[in-house]
Design brief:
This protein is of the alpha/beta class. It is built from ten helices and twelve strands.
Length: about 260
């Protein structure tokens, strides 16, 4: 992993991205920390041309987006138009909200819909990835939902955006999941997993939880990962401080 491959998932800063002025100020802070790329998500309304101008002025790359799942499945052409405006190749299906997932057959129907949308994006030169939470580690027989999704879909059309925290929360192994997705893992959400004073799982800055990031990054590098995207759903204080803390750990311990 190179430092230029490290990005911020802007959902981390969602409370500071409600207006164009806040977005501009927050992106400036992200660049000052040292990040060179961002994933667009959790942002308030802003004209996309203005957003592109802000990114360009700060020297930030839009490495990926999250788009509404309904739009991806039902109107992939609109997603392509947005990605083109942002000069961005990658997006992710964020969460199976309002999707029936009560049986293996339901998961297969969903996977087929993802595959159809992914084909449309692929033919336009874009890449649709699937972002997991813990829900996808529910089992139907011998396989988890996430295994069914990736087995059922065509690697040409559906790639992965594995989230290390949610893999751990689902009772699986982030290293093994990265290793299993050779040439299918362009995006990785690096997110640490810790146990709080209340003995409950909690989010942590990279390097300050319990996940083996040296092994995770090695496996993701081998799988061909393009972007390592730092995300912290909940921060103990100022999220900019948490992003800076993660960046310093990554810079000092994980990059080559």
């Amino acid at each position: 992993m190179k430092l230029s491959q490290v990005a911020v998932q802007l959902y981390t800063l969602r409370n500071f991205l409600k207006t164009p002025a806040e977005i501009a100020q927050s992106l400036h802070k992200v660049r000052e920390i040292g990040y060179e790329a961002v994933q667009i998500s959790g942002m308030g309304p802003i004209d996309e041309q203005e957003l592109v101008e802000i990114l360009d002025a700060e020297g930030l790359v839009c490495c990926a987006t999250h788009e509404p799942g309904v739009e991806i499945l039902n109107n992939p052409e609109k997603v392509i138009e947005r990605l083109n405006r942002l000069d961005c190749q990658y997006t992710a299906y964020p969460f199976p909200a309002d999707v029936k997932m009560d049986s293996r057959e339901d998961v297969e129907v969903f996977a087929d819909a993802l595959n159809r949308a992914g084909k449309v994006l692929t033919e336009a030169g874009k890449v649709l990835t699937y972002h997991n939470h813990a829900i996808e580690f529910r089992r139907f027989g011998s396989q988890t939902m996430l295994e069914i999704i990736f087995e059922r879909t065509d690697p040409r059309y559906i790639q992965a955006e594995i989230d290390t925290y949610w893999v751990q929360a689902g009772g699986a192994n982030p290293v093994k999941w990265c290793s299993s997705l050779q040439d299918r893992l362009p995006l990785l959400h690096i997110k640490d997993y810790a146990i709080s004073e209340e003995n409950k799982p909690t989010f942590a800055e990279i390097g300050y939880g319990n996940l083996p990031f040296h092994d995770i990054v090695a496996a993701a590098d081998k799988a061909g990962c393009r972007w390592y995207i730092v995300e912290q759903d909940v921060c103990p204080g100022d999220p900019f401080d948490s992003l800076a803390k993660s960046f310093e750990y990554i810079k000092g311990n994980l990059v080559v």
